Amino acid sequence: MQYVKSKDGVPGLRERKKQATKVALSEAAVRLAAEHGAENVTVEAISSAAGVSPRTFFNYFESHDDAFLMIDAEVGQRIRRALREAPAEIPVLEVLRDAFLAELTDVAERHEVWSLRAKVFQRSPYLLVRGLGAHMAEERELAQAVADRLGSAAGDRVGLYPRLVASVATAAIRTSIEDWCERTPDVEFAEVFRATFAHLTSGMTPPDTPDTR
User: What is the mean pLDDT of the chain?
Assistant: First the structure.
């Protein structure tokens, strides 16, 4: 699904409305699943809770399960573009940290929903499998973008370092969200996220205290 942006790059009204509808659908799906179980929640129920028709649901998600995954392909595209276009002197992990943080503002604003989503996934392991497959595909594309930035790709082979960077960055996102969801809502997500990447750039040196943000 393609959105139209204004000339200055700011999302237009049409784009914002579409994004709001997608967020409403995913939030409705998670809340219903937390109460009834994902396997017991229908597309009709999700659509009704979000105030749209089932037909509209499929304008945003290819299947029932996709509403719970909360994965946006356009986010991945913007991350990869930011990685390729950032000045060469900026370290790869720093570029990824800032690019991902800019895209994860909805996480910071939806502490309750992301916490509920974690519980839904715990109760429905099949969603974890679906999510893993989707994230692996995104990770492969991110590794290619890292290789392009570094000029390290050799033919069809991406290389070990780009694969590792993509894998570590993806794990850092998941870990940040999981850790933040377990904290009180007054803790800023950005603080946890930046601390996660600080551990990576420090070479994973153990912190002086047991729990360092």
Answer: 81
